[in-house]
Amino acid sequence: MRVNYYIMVFCLVFGIFANIYVIVKLNIGFSIFELFQKIQEAKQTPKCEIDVDNLLNFIENRHFLELQEKELKELGTTYDNPDGRTVQTMMFAISAGLGNKLFEVISLLGIAETLQRNPVMNATNAEYIRVLSQSLQPVFPKLVEQFDLRIIPYPSVTHQQTNWGACCRFDDPRKFINRTEQHLMLDGHYFQSYKYFDHIRPQVRQWLAPNKTDNYTYIKKPNGTAYNYSIPTVSPKYTTVLTPTLTPEIDLAFSRLFCDVTLITAPSSTFGWWLSYLAKRNAKTYYRDIVESKDGVLHEMRQEDFYPPSWTKLWTDPSGSIRKS
Ligand SMILES: *[C@@H]1O[C@H](CO)[C@@H](O)[C@H](O)[C@H]1NC(C)=O
Ligand SMILES: *[C@@H]1O[C@H](CO)[C@@H](O)[C@H](O)[C@H]1NC(C)=O
Ligand SMILES: *[C@@H]1O[C@H](CO)[C@@H](O)[C@H](O)[C@H]1NC(C)=O
Ligand SMILES: *[C@@H]1O[C@H](CO)[C@@H](O)[C@H](O)[C@H]1NC(C)=O
Ligand SMILES: *[C@@H]1O[C@H](CO)[C@@H](O)[C@H](O)[C@H]1NC(C)=O
Ligand SMILES: *[C@@H]1O[C@H](CO)[C@@H](O)[C@H](O)[C@H]1NC(C)=O
After folding, report:
1. Which of 2, 64, 67, 139 is 20 to 30 A from residue 186's alpha carbon, by CA?
2. pLDDT band per the 50, 70, 90 thresholds, residue 71
3. Which of 167, 196, 225 is the last residue of a domain?
4. Hey, whose CA ends up nearest to atom 2 of ligand 6?
5. Distance from the CA of 273 to the center of ligand 5, in angstroms?
6. Strand pairing partners for 263?
7. Is 271 a residue whose pLDDT tops 60?
8. Which PANTHER family match (predicted)?
9. Ligand nearest to the CA of 3
10. Mean pLDDT of 133-159
C-alpha cells in the first residue's frame, strides 16, 4: 500500500467513548488486528482505502458537499395517513445517550410505517420537547420533522404493552395492524432492534445525514501531536485520526464518510451500533461476541434481533485466536 496516497480506514468503536481511529499501517501483534489484516488480504471486504485529500478536505471543512454521498436523493419523508390514526411510544430512554435516543425515535418511525399510522410525540411532555429541541434538532433537523408534536387527550389514547422490560428483543408490531383505535400508545422500553426500522433504512440514513454546516476542523490530522490517547502496547504500529472532542455527530459524520469497516468492541454499545449502521453504504461490520464479554445486557438480548445478519461476530477459540463465526 502506498501510504503517501491512501489511508486505510477502518473504525474501532469503543463503546461510549466511540473514538474513531484511522489506521494507516497495520502490521503484527494484537490478534484482532491480525485477523483484520488477513481479511483485507483475502479481499473479502471492500477495499479500505480513501484519498488523503478527501480526508483533509473533510477536516478542513473545505469541500464537504463534494464528499456527501450520492445516495442522498430525496425520498418520501413524512407519513400522511388519510385517516389520521396515530401511534406513540413511551420514549423510555429518550434522556439517555444518543444511541438509545436514536433507537427509540427511529423505531417509532419504523413502527408507524409498519402500522400506517402517523408517528406522534406528546407535545405537553417537557422532557420530550427539551430532548428534541436541544439534542436532536441541532444535529438531525430532518429527523425531528418526521414527527407530529401533538396534544392528544389522555382518555382517547389506547395503551398497549410491547417490547416490555428487555432492551433488545424484537416484539413484532404487526400484531397491532388491525387495531382500529384512533390513537395507539405502545408502552415499552428501549426498542433496540433493527427489525423495527430496517425496512425504511434508506430514509433512516437520510434523516441521520450529517449537517453540512457543522464545523469539523477539530478532527486531528494523522500524526498531529495536539492530542493524547492510548494505544494498547501490544498493538501494531499505526497512525490514528481521533475526534478528540467526542461529539457524537462528528463521529457519525466521520463514520458515514470514511469507514469501510467498523469493529464494535463493546457489543452492547448502542452508539457503536449506530456508527456501524450509518457507516459507508457498503461497510462491513464486525462485533465482539457478547457472551465472551460477559456483558450484563446479554440476558435482555436476542442477538439475532440486535445485530443485522450481514454483520460478523468475532469469537475466541480455545487456543485464544480470534475467529469469524
Ligand atoms: C403527555 O405528557 C403529559 C406530561 O408528561 C402527561 O401528563 C400526559 O398524560 C401525556 N399525554 C398522554 C396522552 O400520554
Ligand atoms: C388482519 O386482518 C387481515 C384481514 O382480515 C387478516 O388476514 C390478518 O390475519 C389480520 N392480522 C392480524 C395480526 O390480526
Ligand atoms: C447545522 O449546524 C449549524 C452549525 O452548528 C447550525 O447552526 C444549524 O442550525 C444546523 N442545522 C441545519 C439545518 O443546518
Ligand atoms: C471551526 O472551528 C475552528 C476551531 O474552533 C475555528 O477556528 C473556525 O473558525 C471554525 N470555522 C467555522 C466555519 O466556523
Ligand atoms: C506525517 O505523515 C506524513 C505522511 O505519512 C509524513 O510524510 C510525515 O513525515 C509525518 N510527520 C511526522 C512528524 O511524523
Ligand atoms: C498521555 O497520556 C498518558 C497516559 O494517561 C500519560 O502518561 C502521558 O503523560 C500523556 N502525555 C501527554 C503529552 O500528555
Report:
1. 139
2. very low
3. 196
4. 228
5. 32
6. 12, 286
7. yes
8. GALACTOSIDE 2-ALPHA-L-FUCOSYLTRANSFERASE-RELATED (PTHR22898:SF2), UNCHARACTERIZED GLYCOSOL TRANSFERASE-RELATED (PTHR22898)
9. 5
10. 92
